Amino acid sequence: MTRHAPTAGDELFVNSVEKAFRVLKALSTEHRAMTLSELRAASGLVRAAQRYVHTMNTLGYITKDERRKAYTIAPKILEWVATYYQSSFVYPIAVNNI
Fold this sequence. Notes:
Elements: H1 15-30, E1 34-35, H2 36-43, H3 49-59, E2 62-65, E3 70-73, H4 78-87, H5 90-96
Antiparallel strand pairs: 1-3, 2-3
Helix pairs in contact: 1-2
């Protein structure tokens, strides 16, 4: 898969989507629960982090430990992994070799 950085004037690029993925990337890179303050620092989303975290928590893609006030990636993200494997060349090979 080819990855490209957005170019100046790219009218199709959605900055909000990129910012949401910055939060997920921060959580996946650290491999631990992170507070909102830590997510702000790791993602670079100083002002908007709370809105992105709240939205992804509401949608079920991250979870909040109320006791520790920390967030982690939720199991729901595995739906994307399952879809990828089922639609890629890996799935038929794995199924045929079980």
